[in-house]
Amino acid sequence: MKLLGGLIAARGVAIAVALLWSTSAWAADQDRLDQIDFPVRTVTVVVPFARGGPTDTVARLIAGEMAKTLGQPIEVENVLGAGGTLAATRVAHATPDGHTLIVGHMGTHGSAAALYPKLGYRPDKDFEPVALLTEMPVLLLARKDFPPKDMTEFEAFVKAHTDNINVAHAGFGSVSYASCLLLDRLLGVDPTAVPFNGTGPALQALVEGQVDYMCDQIVNAVPALRQGTIKAYVIASSERDPAVPQVPTASEAGLPRFRVAAWTGLFAPRGTPEPIVAKLNAAVSQALDQSDLRLRLTDLGGIIPRADQRLPAGLARLVHDEIARWDDVARGSVP
Ligand code: MLT
Q1: Which of 86, 177, 220, 263 is the pocket-test mutation for ligand 1 (most atoms within 8 Å of CB)?
Q2: CA of 115 to the centre of ligand 1 (A)
Q3: Strand 74-78 relative to strand 127-143, pairing
């Protein structure tokens, strides 16, 4: 007993020392960041899709919290067109002083690079990755009266009626476009793709029955699923999501290779000084640790990255891997 008590006490001291060390390391780091003279005016965060969609929702939630930490207003600007690539081109060429940023994602910084023959930016070279913001599983959604009852019926129905089926997406190269392209490849179908400026308006068209189905990030879909104004066949993931526990995984639905791990990240133009990137990264991380924000995002099915996953280097790796993955899909093979 005594020995055990001694060990516990020694462990307690070790933990206290470690905590003290990490608290003072954090304080030193915070001091360093506080001394950086940034931002000196309003920061613009460009959202490359329409208001009300998943990218916009994530951007507005996080920007609101970041503004409090950074002590300057943050304006969210929706710049629309070409699957988010016009906005990304603009930010890639903005002044690299940290005052113009973009919320990019698996589309603008992944599938678009693979799908567009010529882009006005290089997703892996023309930006300083700042921080991973969220991961968002993708769901296959349909208008509520779309006839198939499950994935097996869906496949048969889409094969039989391909020419009369309309699939909504947020522009060539976007997450919704790339995800349903992967689905097309897996099922061997080629329905008509209908572009919108974001999945906010695309989802509205689905609710109104103007289109038949779409692939969308969970954060956008959960409210409509809860209201029963649309339905979901599958979550393109290996695990069910607590926000929509009734929706089967890709394997459960018989389509194990339908996997899309969509994500959003904050990017600055290349050449933005490292101390500014570090200060922005810390502000994102503080925002993601804020409990109301965590509740809002997780209630909508968003996955908040752990602290060690939010670092710029991790986001750079993700962009690199994503471009390679979608390159395969664009060429017709399925990774
Ligand atoms: C996409 O499909 O790339 C996005 O979900 C678009 C959006 O945020 O509206």
Answers
A1: 220
A2: 16
A3: unpaired
Element spanning 5, H or E: helix 2-34
The conformation of residue 121, written as its DSSP 8-state character, comes to: S
- Decide: 222 in ligand 1 pocket, CB within 6 A: no
Specify the ligand 1 atom closest to the Cα of 217: 5
- Whether 171 is in the pocket of ligand 1, judged by its Cβ within 6 Å, is no
CB 156 within 8 A of CB 203: no
**251 CA from centroid of ligand 1 (Å):** 24
Cα 45 to Cα 60: distance, rounded to the nearest angstrom: 9
- Ligand 1, atom 9: closest residue by C-alpha: 198
Give yes or no for a cis peptide into 39 (omega within 30° of 0). yes
The distance of Cα 261 from the centroid of its chain, to the nearest Å, equals: 8
CA-closest candidate to residue 170, choices 75, 47, 58, 62: 47
Query: In angstroms, what is the span from residue 225 Cα to ligand 1's centroid?
Result: 17
Query: How many angstroms does the Cα of residue 43 sit away from the middle of ligand 1?
Result: 22
Residue 162 to residue 1: CA distance in whole angstroms: 73
Q: Do the beta carbons of residue 292 and residue 298 sit within 8 Å?
A: no
Which among 47, 79, 174 is the best mutation to test ligand 1's pocket, defined by most ligand atoms within 8 Å of the CB?
Answer: 174
Instruction: Give, for all 335 residues of the chain, the pLDDT tens digit.
Output: 333 344 344 445 555 555 555 555 555 577 777 788 889 999 999 999 999 999 999 999 999 999 999 999 999 999 999 999 999 999 999 999 999 999 999 999 999 988 898 999 999 999 999 999 999 999 999 999 999 999 999 999 999 999 999 999 999 999 999 999 999 999 999 999 999 999 999 999 999 999 999 999 999 999 999 999 999 999 999 999 999 999 999 999 999 999 998 999 999 999 999 999 999 999 999 999 999 999 999 999 999 999 999 999 999 999 999 998 888 787 776 65
Number of the ligand 1 atom closest to the C-alpha atom of 175: 3
Largest CA distance in the chain: 78
